[in-house]
Amino acid sequence: MFELEVEKLLKNVGIKEVEFETPPQKEFGDIAFPCFQLAKKEKKNPVEIAKNIASKIKTKDTIFTKVEARGPYVNIFFDWEKISEKILKQMLKFKMDLGKGKKVMVEYSQPNPVHPMHIGHARTTFLGDAVANVLDFVGYKVVKANYMNDTGLQVAKLVAAYLEWAKGKKPEGKPDFWLWQYYVKYHEEENNNPSLEEKAREILRKVELEENKAAKKVWDQIVDWCIEGFEQTYKRVGVNFDVYLHESKFRKAGKKLVEAAIKKGIASKNDEGAIVAGLEKYDLKKTIILRSDGTGLYVTSDLGMTLYKFEKYKLDKAIWVVSSEQNLYFQQLFKIFELLGYKFFKNCYHLSFDLVRLSEGKMSSREGRAVMLDEVVSKIVDLAYQEVSKRNSELTEKEKIELAEKIGIGALKYAIVRIEPENQIIFDWNQMLSFDGNTGPYLQYAHTRCSSILKKAGKWKPNYSVEVNEHEKELLKTIMKFPEAVEHAAKEMKPYLICNYAYELATTFANFYEKCPVLKAEQDTKNFRLTLVQATKIGLEKSLNLIGIQVPEKM
Fold first, then answer.
1. pLDDT (tens digit, 9 = 90+) per residue, 96-109?
2. Other CB atoms within 10 Å distance of the CB of residue 420
């Protein structure tokens, strides 16, 4: 927050290129300037350079109390009494405009409309939602998009299964779960009954090539039922979208781009009659972009949809939140647009993440071996309900249920988002459902503790500046880090940095609360500490909201 003031301080003594480090120990100051690069440039001893710089700096009428040389470092100490007001007021009225109104589409979740969302979908859903929230918070105009892979052979197989075993029936219970049983049955029967796959392929040809209205009607109904089930799940976990993009609507547009790729020599027909984009000379594998029978693939529609995204929404950037299994695919997709001459390829970004796996191995929805997201949510909320009931017997049944939803879903979201995207998540009930340590409920509880203190205080007047002790200073330091955490999370599209910050804030606050009485302190100190509590509460609430977690006022 005060980097500009530090830069000015150093530039006053002739230091033009400034970089900072955080000292490893508190007694070494609040911020340090390492002299190694300067020593290398001037061919002098870095220890002597540090001594020389420190001797020249004057701290009178600044926000610093002293500057001292320690080895090859110039260590700078803040006047916390002077800067506390700015830190606290910034948290109370925080605003950042990194985006400057630029338009960004974040596409995430993307469940296949053939089965319910499994726990693997939780990662793209919660990670994508957090990224969208952070970008919106810092001033981007964000479009939250969900891509429905509503065409292709996998949907045709579900339609074939429905016509084979449930024709004319309507879903019983949650529609996506009801349809899943037939999807699993199809794959169980497929090996013993080869005609099933031919039926599915015939349905695909009727819908895509022949535009058979009767077949399309059944197809659309199946997809609509699945989406209806997805929307029930989204509503429960507090995720919403601005737009649904259906793959089927972009297949024709994609085929036109395939034709353009052929004309430009980017793609050609192989011996089997399929259209292949030859990308080998770009260190990418060749990829089929249209089947030999004229039906499209996922990439065919994605070509049409990507062009639509940029033209329809006037995007400055498009982000796909998709697993690392598709790393090569997106490199190929973006390269095709580059070769076609579309400049927006530079503004296409694949936010890659590793998978969520079961401890016994990879999940398979078609085999019925998967942990479904709805089941996870229900189980974790049930566990939260048991904890709420133990601790809050005075609550009404409705209040217990509402609180359990916030705690349980918050625990799940935090457990997913706090892991760095490139790291795999091994789904483990004991770890997911832990309410101790670095968890969502721990942060929610810290927030409720702040709320309780402020409620007990009654009327009070904010005080932004007193002579601070070590524990107050540490809390101020952590509060001060919020803008930096948000900025890095937005620029790097890494919302786990918000989780890291929130956990640090909660633990620092816990230490402050243990060491510094708030309500029993002398009046000026009491008001200052209440201001610290209020800023902490706001910091926790903003952080949790950014990663999609609701904050209860009591637990």
1. 899 999 999 999 99
2. 12
How does DSSP classify residue 361?
B
Q: What is the mean pLDDT of residues 397-415?
A: 95
pTM listed for this prediction: 0.91
Per-position DSSP letters for 229-244, written without gaps between them: HHHHHHHHHT---SEE
pLDDT for 362? 53
Question: What is residue 275's predicted lDDT score, i.e. its pLDDT?
Answer: 97
SS (H, E, C) 497-555: HHHHHHHHHHHHHHHHHHHCCCCCCCHHHHHHHHHHHHHHHHHHHHHHHHCCCCCCCCC
Q: Return phi, psi of residue 265, to 5°.
A: 80, 15
pLDDT, residue 359, reads 65
Phi, psi of 50 (to 5 degrees): -60, -45
| Cβ pair 39, 89 in contact under 8 A | no
CATH number at residue 539: 1.10.730.10
- Judged by DSSP in three states, 348 sits in strand
- Which residue, of 56, 78, 100, is where some domain finishes? 78
What band does 284 get if pLDDT is binned at 50, 70 and 90? Answer: very high
CB 270 within 8 A of CB 278: no
103 part of a folded domain: no
User: In the numeric block, which tokens belong to residue 547?
Assistant: 């990663």
Type of residue found at 67: V
Q: What is the CATH number of the domain that holds 278?
A: 3.40.50.620
Question: Please, which residues have CB within 8 angstroms of residue 96's CB and are 6 or more apart in sequence?
Answer: 137, 138, 139, 483, 486, 487
> Which of residues 358, 382, 416 is at a domain's end?
358
Could you tell me if 386 and 336 lie in one domain?
A: no
| Residue 19 near residue 33 (C-beta atoms within 8 A) | yes
How many domains are there within the chain? Answer: 3
